[in-house]
Amino acid sequence: MGPGMNSRGEVVDSSRVEAGYGQSVKGLRDWEGEITGKPAPGSKFTQLQIGMPMKQVTDLVGQPSDQGAYLTGKAFIPFFFGSDKHRQELVYKNQGRLIFAGGSMGDIGSAHLVWIIHNASEPAYR
């Protein structure tokens, strides 16, 4: 198992989870992403699909308890014009985290879901 996970494949510390230890999936409109951990009982995250726009996700699962944004390493590659220069992270208490890519810093609503991190013990804040 990867960092932040226990031997049963459950996420115990979302802040330590690294990409590549979950299940790779191809989602809506050919968006590629990852699902890490196991959903909490009754989790709203099971309604989600990789590639969903942020607005659709928040309409389905509600507003997060916390959120933040960060740059990826691709932001520092000259002449990189792809959609993964920064990411938006939404935190849902006792559910996990949702990571979005695309959009722009001023227009995060056009970002799409690329990573679902299930964590039944997720705290309310990052």
Provide the fold topology.
Elements: E1 23-26, E2 32-36, H1 54-61, E3 66-71, E4 86-92, E5 96-101, E6 112-118
Parallel strand pairs: 2-6
Antiparallel strand pairs: 1-2, 3-4, 4-5, 5-6
Unreliable stretches:
none
Fraction of residues in helix: under 10%
Q: What string gives the helices and strands in order?
A: EEHEEEE
How many angstroms does the end-to-end distance come to? 22 Å
Q: Tally the beta strands.
A: 6
Major sheet summary line: 6 strands, mixed
H/I helix tally: 1
Q: How large a portion of the residues is in β-strands, by DSSP E?
A: 25-35%
| Averaged pLDDT | 86
Strand order of the largest sheet: 1-2-6-5-4-3
User: For the CA atoms, what is the radius of gyration?
Assistant: 14 Å
Summarize the structure.
This protein has one helix at residues 54-61; strands at residues 23-26, 32-36, 66-71, 86-92, 96-101, 112-118. The chain is mainly β and 126 residues long.
List keywords for this structure.
1 helix, 126 residues, 6 strands, globular, mainly beta
Task: Please explain how this structure is put together.
It is a single chain. With 126 residues, the protein is mostly beta strands. The protein contains one helix and six strands; from the N terminus they run ββαββββ. A hairpin with a 5-residue loop joins strand 1 and strand 2. The radius of gyration is 14 Å and the shape is globular.
